[in-house]
Amino acid sequence: MSAAVPTDDPLVRERAHLSSSRAALRAMREEVEALDIKDVTANWVNSIVLERQIEDRIKALADLSHTPLFFGRLDYLPPTQHGQRFYIGRRHVHDAQGDPMVIDWRAPVSQPYYQASKKDPQDVGLRRRFGYTGGELTAYEDERLSDPGELERTSRLLQAEIERPRVGPMRDIVATIQPEQDEIVRSDLSGTLCVQGGPGTGKTAVGLHRVAYLLYAHRERLARTGTLVIGPNRSFLQYIEQVLPALGELEVKQATVDDLVAHVEVRGADAAATAVVKGDARMAEVLRRAVWSHVSLPTEPLMVVRGSRRWRVPAYELEEIVRELTERDIRYGAAREALPQRIAHAVLVRMEQAGEAPDDRVQNAVARNAAVKALVKECWPPVDPAKLVLRLLGDAEFLAEHSAGVLTDEERKLLLWEKPARSVRTARWSAADTVLIDEATDLVERTHSLGHVVLDEAQDLSPMQYRAVGRRCTTGSATVLGDLAQGTTPWATRSWEDALGHLGKPEARVEELTAGFRVPSEVIAYASRLLPHMAPGLAPVESVRENPGAFEVREAAGAAGDSAGAVVAACVDALAHEGSIGLIAADARIAPLAAALEAAGMPYLSPGEETTAESRLTLVPASLAKGLEYDHVVLDEPAAVVDGEPDERTGLRRLYVALTRAVSGLTIVHAAPLPEQLEPRA
Ligand SMILES: Nc1ncnc2c1ncn2[C@@H]1O[C@H](COP(=O)(O)OP(=O)(O)OP(=O)(O)O)[C@@H](O)[C@H]1O
């Protein structure tokens, strides 16, 4: 530090702490890099594992110039924490003596940074927030929480972070997590939590930070059992994929529900009415009956020949063994595997009664005896889940038998293929079929359960899909995130209680987030006009953004649907501002708009592709807009977005999603009349 710089300038002192923290981080990294594992590893498997751990550790200790090492400071009042000062950042950094220089945001001592207030200072004297410009520490802001003379005020730095124009993929919000969000992030691993929140209330952000928190608080357990984030589609997963690595978590898997149940290739699509039946929870009962219908009770006695002796087990005893296995709470396949041993045991009992002393080896040999095998094959044949579903959808009699009293004739008709498929390989499976196959697979063999599952945009899942997700966390917990008003599938969730029941977590807590961080107030007010028409009972989001945002509705001259020129002009205007631009349109209008953009020489991206300074415009089909956000949105022809859906309610919900993607501004361009539901209420 130069002598000319006044050392009582807090900014100078904080910068000094930043550079010594960076030096300490460098030292930590160098220490790991210098580790010589030759001496400590006994074999090559160990050394490969260790090498990977070291590589990961080095990666985790990287000093990323665009992510500041710390973003806040807490000065505790003595005697709490001995009146210590803590710098809060994305990861823990310590000096050569092992004393902390930066504390991980997830550590318990960091929590008051998010939770303390003037009303409840939580023994904090000072909370300081830091502002950075291009990696340089340039500002700070103090709150003396325990000073009665200081008034509560909103943080400028927090506000600036919320207002910041968006560019590329989603970023972490670790510096500005709000108290109600923090409570969700840090809630216990043991319980399942469901978060209902309107557009832009931070559900996705909170879900991802919760994963990072849980991995910190229960690292070993979750490393063993695994964590999974489920999102609606690839573009969404690409949009969020950098958040967890930025928080130092590299190991979390991300998938769509379709990925999870990809037992067969999807090459077909269902009519909505058919998909509704296939997604109905009653299908679970149909499948259960169909799988277990393969079991038949033995009617003949069993004769096992060993050497010169013959052992006979009467039919009634075999029947009892089979019946007992069907009544136990085990999977079809596990019971099938247990059956030969049970039968062998019955034979062994007879051997013992005859004075023999058979051991385990004899029992195993009897279990493998041809007569026993034949009996098992007859009474408990193997079931192939895909073949079973193939038969249900192709064989009217088989379906009728197992859906009697569960489905109506009409529903059965909807399920049956017009032309039954010949084989699993050639069938034109739909997405809903794969979920049925997944259910059948689980009836045969228990699905592996993970430690924690985050399910985002949950409102679009069918009951059968909830079940598919639920069986992947039977022994773990889940965080379910969604907005009932954004449900756009014909089977969209009506109540979280129902959904949580299908998920197998009826005891889950439902929390609500209402503060909107994305959409400017004027835009959210406009979009919320749709709520009474498509999700009555849900309260509008309250925007916490101070900037009212730019909002404009442009009526294009010319015939309805002939507004491409005006749309291109709106995109040109939007590109005059910084940040990302999303041109959202009904799926059917994507091709003509793409042509118009190309004719105008304007390059554009597809959703999920990363925006750069040169390429900031993304052409987004309305069906893929969910969960995404752009700094400025140009929305093409709202009426076409509504008309693109099979019914009006779904159409209005799709429009609501499209209207709520903008951070700084929304321009609506239309030639056709706007949907009447967008009129202000009298
Ligand atoms: N505490 C916060 N501080 C700063 N920004 C935040 C905060 N919470 C959320 N945001 C920002 O608000 C935007 C919306 O968040 P997010 O996408 O998580 O909302 P959502 O509820 O999942 O929305 P949707 O229902 O539309 O999918 C994101 O840019 C996110 O970074």
Automatic annotation (TrEMBL):
Q: Which UniProt keywords apply?
A: ATP-binding, Helicase, Hydrolase, Nucleotide-binding
Q: Which Pfam families match?
A: UvrD-helicase (PF00580)
Signal sequence region? none
Q: Where does this protein hold ATP?
A: G197, G198, P199, G200, T201, G202, K203, T204
- GO CC aspect terms: cytosol
Record-linked InterPro entries: DNA_helicase_UvrD/REP, P-loop_NTPase, UvrD-like_ATP-bd
Q: Which GO terms describe its biological process?
A: recombinational repair
- The chain's coiled-coil residues are none
Q: Where is the UvrD-like helicase ATP-binding domain?
A: 176-520
One GO MF term on file is: hydrolase activity
Q: What is this protein called?
A: DNA helicase
Give the organism the record lists: Streptomyces filamentosus
The top of its lineage is: Bacteria, Bacillati, Actinomycetota, Actinomycetes, Kitasatosporales
